[in-house]
């Protein structure tokens, strides 16, 4: 039997599609890949981190296409193993946010995304690191990090839980002050490091971010009065946040981000920094972190 030349990694827990529909998609992937002359292999993940192991093995074996069916977390786990390899990533979005897929214009319809991933052309994009943690879409501190941590505590996932968690977090949140490359940035509502332009769900935090420019957009939102919530929300989803006087952005290759520690109260905890990388909550040691771009480091199938 010929060797596999197309690996498909499926996180069975991602998203909210019923099992029967996920099974039908598996069958569709195999049929479509074979129709295009590939010998596909499909592997379902059994634990967190499994996608990284599978993708790394595929890259070592010389497989040139690895498709991932999952949310931003599984996309991140797969993509991190494919950085700086000749193996290209195909995304079949199955999560609640799908930030990188949406930014790249990958269809949200699974069959269309499958076709694109199987027959698409490999295109180089940038990736990034928060300390040593790889990310591909956005990472951040402040409110968005607080929401990521609060969301992770919820027993049920999904958009409805996310909206409720965000609403509750908004009333508890206390902005801290930050330094960006040792320059005081003042108290900030949020501090986003954007490789791609959106968090997911078409929430465009960095309207001008370009995944292939060799730069990160370091975007901040200053604290704003309660009556501005609707306006800022509207601009976020309308991709016009750059018109807000509370928003600013600077393109950087790398940056040191530090929290000013004399602010009180502090939601991060002593000598730790709440952060997120591609929406996954991370707790960083100390009050400082670094971010850097890895230009042209990942091939994606588009
Ligand atoms: N078999 C598994 N059992 C438990 N966890 C898994 C398994 N496979 C993958 N994971 C973990 O599930 C996490 C979340 O998955 P993913 O982000 O794909 O889905 P999601 O949570 O539905 O999407 P979103 O983040 O968009 O809401 C991943 O970071 C991965 O570590």
Automatic annotation (TrEMBL):
It is an enzyme of class 2 (transferase). InterPro entries: ATP-NAD_kinase_N, Diacylglycerol_kinase_cat_dom, Lipid_Phosphate_FormReg, NAD/diacylglycerol_kinase_sf, YegS/DAGK_C. One of its GO terms (molecular function) is ATP binding. Gene3D superfamilies: 2.60.200.40, Probable inorganic polyphosphate/atp-NAD kinase, domain 1 (3.40.50.10330). Its EC number is 2.7.1.-. Residues 1-134 form the DAGKc domain. Pfam families: DAGK_cat, YegS_C. The keyword Kinase applies. Keywords: ATP-binding, Kinase, Nucleotide-binding, Transferase. One of its GO terms (cellular component) is plasma membrane. This is Putative yegS-like lipid kinase.
């Amino acid at each position: 039997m010929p060797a596999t030349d197309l690996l498909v990694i499926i996180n069975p827990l991602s998203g909210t599609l019923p099992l029967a529909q996920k099974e039908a998609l598996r069958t569709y992937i195999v049929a479509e890949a074979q129709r295009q002359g590939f010998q596909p292999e499909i592997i379902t993940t059994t634990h967190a981190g499994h996608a990284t192991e599978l993708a790394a093995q595929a890259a070592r074996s010389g497989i040139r296409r690895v498709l991932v069916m999952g949310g931003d977390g599984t996309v991140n786990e797969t993509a991190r193993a494919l950085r700086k390899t000749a193996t290209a990533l195909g995304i079949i979005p199955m999560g609640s946010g799908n930030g990188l897929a949406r930014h790249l214009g990958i269809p949200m319809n699974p069959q269309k995304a499958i076709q694109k991933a199987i027959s698409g052309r490999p295109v180089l994009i940038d990736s990034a690191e928060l300390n040593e943690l790889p990310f591909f879409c956005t990472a951040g501190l402040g409110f968005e990090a607080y929401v990521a941590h609060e969301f992770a505590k919820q027993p049920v996932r999904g958009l409805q839980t996310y909206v409720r968690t965000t609403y509750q977090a908004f009333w508890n949140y206390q902005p801290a002050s930050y330094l960006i490359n040792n320059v005081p940035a003042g108290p900030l509502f949020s501090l986003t490091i954007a490789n791609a332009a959106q968090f997911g769900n078409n929430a465009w935090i960095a309207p001008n971010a370009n995944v292939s420019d060799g730069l990160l957009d370091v975007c901040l939102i200053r604290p704003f009065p309660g009556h501005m919530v609707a306006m800022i929300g509207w601009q976020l989803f309308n991709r016009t946040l750059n018109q807000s006087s509370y928003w600013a952005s600077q393109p950087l290759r790398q940056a040191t981000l530090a929290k000013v520690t004399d602010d009180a109260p502090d939601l991060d905890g002593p000598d730790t920094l709440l952060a997120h990388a591609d929406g996954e909550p991370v707790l960083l040691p100390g009050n400082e972190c670094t971010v850097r771009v890895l230009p042209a480091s990942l091939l994606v199938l588009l």
